[in-house]
């Protein structure tokens, strides 16, 4: 199929879920195919392509902003006049650029995925420990949602959009297309684990953070921590490295297909 794509020769599309080739399907749209739109015609192909491009663009911007915010928090621990966020955005972008060249494919990320798992659990355990400590010592928590009715409505919409964005993955179906058959069975197991055990941890951090600091808590939770300097540096360093790895996981499949 890849050789046919290089020669711009139409080839049969793969139906991802059953893992079989569908007869009569031809991809000749001249753009990068989406694994989950090959069965639904040219119109849905282009619509999905636009949304995938926006997801890729906005998702990458979010990862870079997250990494930059983490670097700024580290800098603020060592300086009374930290640099502006824009400088750290440039540094984070440059770091990801270099990382994408050093680790160009998903296959080359084997060890990095293990590091990512360790960083995730390190971040969660240390963060929860500090949050519980701060929550017990903070007696002035205020849970009242302040602002006008209009601002509350827009804040509600913003919260809903954040929940949707954080609980849907732009690479979920791309991962499904790489699973051995039957892909549906394997993906269903992964989804059940993610949306049960994963959500307990994911929302657990948010709920404990809200309990510890009240409604005025920062959207970037490590900003609120009152622990020792090494704890803040370690948590923000984990967030920075994780933002680089996570961004590459979501982008590497696109880089690979563009190079084919």
TrEMBL record:
Its main location: membrane. Pfam families: Aa_trans (PF01490). The chain crosses the membrane at residues 44-66, 87-106, 112-132, 153-173, 193-213. InterPro entries: AA_transpt_TM. It is found in: Membrane. Gene3D superfamilies: Amino acid/polyamine transporter I. Keywords: Amino-acid transport, Membrane, Transmembrane, Transmembrane helix, Transport. The keyword Transmembrane helix applies. Residues 22-249 form the Amino acid transporter transmembrane domain. One of its GO terms (cellular component) is membrane. This is Amino acid transporter transmembrane domain-containing protein. It comes from Escallonia rubra.
């Amino acid at each position: 199929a890849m050789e046919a794509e290089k020669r711009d020769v139409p080839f049969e599309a793969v139906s991802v879920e059953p893992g079989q080739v569908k007869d009569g399907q031809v991809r000749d749209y001249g753009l990068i195919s989406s694994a989950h739109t090959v069965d639904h015609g040219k119109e849905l192909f282009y619509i999905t392509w636009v949304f995938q491009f926006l997801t890729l663009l906005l998702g990458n911007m979010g990862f870079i902003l997250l990494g930059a915010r983490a670097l700024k928090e580290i800098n603020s621990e060592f300086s009374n006049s930290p640099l502006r966020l824009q400088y750290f955005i440039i540094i984070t972008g440059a770091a990801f650029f270099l990382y994408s060249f050093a680790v160009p494919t998903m296959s080359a990320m084997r060890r990095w995925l293990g590091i990512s798992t360790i960083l995730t659990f390190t971040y969660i355990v240390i963060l929860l420990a500090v949050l519980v400590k701060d929550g017990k010592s903070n007696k002035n928590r205020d849970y009242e949602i302040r602002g006008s009715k209009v601002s509350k409505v827009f804040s509600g919409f913003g919260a809903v959009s954040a929940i949707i964005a954080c609980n849907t993955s732009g690479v979920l179906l791309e991962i499904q297309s790489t699973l051995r058959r039957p892909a549906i069975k394997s993906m269903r197991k992964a989804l059940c684990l993610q949306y049960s055990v994963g959500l307990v941890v994911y929302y657990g951090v948010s709920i404990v953070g809200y309990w510890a600091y009240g409604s005025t808590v920062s959207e970037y939770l490590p900003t609120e921590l009152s622990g020792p300097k090494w704890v803040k540096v370690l948590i923000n360093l984990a967030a920075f490295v994780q933002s680089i790895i996570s961004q590459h996981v979501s982008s590497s499949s696109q880089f690979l297909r563009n190079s084919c």
